[in-house]
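We store amino acids, tokens; thus:
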Amino acid sequence: MVEVLIGKVSGERIRRDLFYLSKDPLPFRKANYTRSGQTKSTLEETDDYIRAQLEEAGCGFRETRHQVQAFRCDETKPLHHWYSKPAPDDPWYDVANIEAVIEGSERPDEIVQLISHKDSMSWIDSPGARDNCVGLVANLEMARLLAGAGLKRTVRILFCNEEHRPWTSRKAAEAGAAAGDEIVAVLNVDSLDGKSDEDTAGGKLTHVVAYSTDEGKALAEQVAWCAKRYGIDLEPKVVFKEKVNDDDGMYINSGFRRTVMNVGSFPYEDAEYHLVGDVPERVNLENVVRSAQVVLAAAVEISQDV
């Protein structure tokens, strides 16, 4: 099953989704930006696109609504970190967590959890192609392929918001803990292909699996090993991430310690991180395809007990 599914990952669909959601027609994915002539924010338009793609694939999904604010921009801070906390009286926006749900046929209560944040920077007009439109479209492609695949365990794919405040992955993780969800693995997919200009110029295809807990280490090694096991030609690396942060950190803090982050480099080396130059034309689509194959292979292995 693994070989068949990873062979169906489509670079054409990934490219279509990437350019649609980070260039034309949607230049951003922000609760605080609405295109001329439109009544919905670009983040709401993004949600409409995700829903339509999941429905077309026959993939069930669920939603929860949350209140967030846009970050303020502070240009006195270091270049890649201009975000600053919103003021209490700044506008609040109603946003969605959208979660694809592919029910397992044998052990539906055991869950493999994938995550990607779908929003772009709320404090600056950046397309956020690598951060994190690539993760969004990779997970969307995985949802298409896993729908109807007949998995033993349930796979859930969360499309959340991290570039507004508060992060909505935290709400999802806390809800899972409160419900007593048996989440056997968490795979965060964030900024695939995000790497240095030097590595980009050298044609390197990179994939880093970062873990922050002892329980996450074995999972990280399994994900990385999938590249070799299935002949996926990129350079996987397993690293320890000391800070328990990002969307994966929200799940660790809620008690789901078998959790990892999939990213293009660590420490993160994209020169256009959090900047207006994070455009889809800079993305190496082949790197995104192969990274998606690695994560998909690991998710299927775990769901099938391979």
Remarks:
- The domain at 2-304 is CATH 3.40.630.10 (Aminopeptidase).
- The two ends are 10 Å apart (CA to CA).
- The CA atoms of residues 73 and 123 lie 5 Å apart.
